[in-house]
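We include the entry.

. . .
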Amino acid sequence: MADNMNYGIIGNCKTAALVSDTGSLEWLCFPDFSSSSVFASLLDKERGGAFRIDAGEKAEISQDYLYHTCILRTHFKTPEGEFEVLDFMPRYKNDRLHYVCPSDVIRYIRLIRGKPVLHFDYEPALAYAKHPTETKPHRHYIKSGSTNGKYESVYLYSNVPQEYILEKKQYTLTGNCYFIISYNQKLLRQNLETINLELQRTKVYWLDWVQRTVRFTHYHEAIIRSALTLKLLSFQKTGAILAAVTTSLPESIGHQRNWDYRFCWIRDASMVITVLTSTGHFNVAERFLRFIIDVIPYKDEKIQIMYGIRGEKRLTERELPWLEGYEGSKPVRIGNAAYHQKQNDIYGVLLDVIYKAFKLFSNDVERAEELWTVARTLVRSVEKNWEKKDRGIWEFRSLNRHFVFSKVLSWVGMDSGVKLAKMLGCRSYEKKWSKTRDAIHKDIMEKGWNPRIGAFTQTYGGTSMDAANLLLASYGFIDAKDPKFVSTVERIREELGRDGLMYRYKDKDDFGEPRSAFTVCSFWMVKALSQIGRQEEAAELLDELLSYSNHLGLFSEDMDFETKRLLGNFPQGYSHLSLIDAAITFTETGVDKNEKILKNIEHIHNVNQVGKQHE
């Protein structure tokens, strides 16, 4: 198999880093996810900067995570000896029950046997490597700083003598050693004892987090790893959840579909909340929900499709021409111009989220009157916009169409509004909104369904397929056993399926014809097949898809159809969300499954509430 995005992610809900399967730290942004890079050899092997540990050509290297944690272990076996590198970012609660999650990366090297010989290649390249970085020794640390432009700096603490790091001299490992890469200067002296304490505290945190996850009878380990990955994509300070921790990893090698995904997309909100509550993690879901509610504007202000991790609205896109790009795939971009786009499906997603807020957190929903005001404003937006063209779920940059899926999410919005009005006893709104909801449904059935093709198409009056329509039953627009949905699933698989993977669409867009499979669509197909009664086919497809992950069970946004190589930004939150959503389908069968999951969720939610009270 070709290079398969063989990286592991480490993080602490403040920032994250990617470590290669050879133990090379190749992507890190400090002090948080959306900051500029310290290491970016992922995007430029020569210039980007990395922290490599070289044990010689004869070294046998393997990699895994410590059981049910986000602590990455890279094991080296050499002719001279054996050692392992534990890479992690500290995360735990202190004595005051506050989260500790500093902008630190710890590389803890533990000797197993012998006297292995290593080289340390420590080359930070600050501020996206635009200008040279100067690295100098100090008494207790090595400091690296930018030499031009915006000033950035980073500190390295270690018990390895500085000359072995700065001069890259051969180093014989005779005991355990450590490296701390920190955005901030340390006030306390660091040593092996404090490093080991950070390791154990972080390990216990992740083990406890996994313990609170619902236990599933099938695909449990895949669900756990995906849930942990989603947790790593959440931003502690605000509750925002990123699409991915990287920028500009291409959808296809050498092509220009390279985007910055270090932002929070509103469209993902509904699935994030559904999946996280399904796994029992109400607190993460609730924090994300509060972030979404906080960024929703009141009355008739413009709603964006995406925001920064602190709720930033301006996400100006620009290119970094000095970086070569992942395997030469240019341009490298930071920021994302898609935030300007108007997408009518956003209103439906937000109404669905608000309805879920009242339904799932009925005893905890604060500002209920304000939320009800926002909901009424969103309904007015749906009423005003649902008949208009938009850019669609796939964010076409120059194409405005009557996309069927956008219309369906408009229906979802009105349906959520109706349910919310009923829940709150607002009968006049319920009656009025029901008429609009039913009108949208009728319009879609008449214009979105193509009887000659036997499927709901991508656009009104069109003939092309759209993988997003695999979600029609999941959103409750149509019954899963309805012949029209069954036929749509079959046609989408026939038209967009290739070698077990799925295109999202095949039409030419702003950048030509799509060249790669969209991972989330393949998992959508698993769920859709299960919904229409083809469980065996769905299970076979899911098993096949899971085999295409990288060596650590991680997925990116895209895959190459032929080689199954992972492509696009990594790890991709939406891919792991849809993996969990598809895998849960096979936990058990029928009503028993749903009842058991709901009971588990209710129990865990109650436990979490008790824990909050004690805090």
